[in-house]
Amino acid sequence: MANLTDILDAVVTKVKSISLAGISSANIKARMLPKIHEELDAVPCVIVSTLRAEAWEPIDMEGTDDIVYFVNVTIVAANNFDFVSESGVYFTWRERIRKALEGHTLAGAPTVWQIDYAPDAVFDPAEFNNMYAYQPMVFEVHSAEVP
Hints:
The chain has two helices and five strands. By secondary structure, it is of the alpha+beta class. It has a single domain (4-145), classed as Phage tail protein-like (STM4215-like, 2-Layer Sandwich). Strands 1-2-3-5-4 form a five-stranded mixed beta sheet. A hairpin with a 6-residue loop joins strand 2 (45-58) and strand 3 (65-78).
């Protein structure tokens, strides 16, 4: 049975495996929230976190449930209010991350049977006043689990 920690760690491993140009694998990490701490985190970075409480529904008569974990993969980049210069790089990262996760399973989380991309805003408007661009992506990670 996969748990949320296994899923987040597996997503981090998957994102590291696609070797995004210009970012150290040490800057791809799991967190409780998609937020950086200026004294601890170098940017750009990719933060893998939860978005909201999981959902579930029965799959079969044997007691297996489809647990849907909402996983947030957020690219955080310094932009100094410049939303143009590096946008091509970050949009390419978004596309590569989406293609690596959407429709696939996760090594390290054997109960995950499907990952769906849930379109969301490209930039988080709540972060416009910061010197960083927060670019969230939401994935619905389906896991077949027996309670």
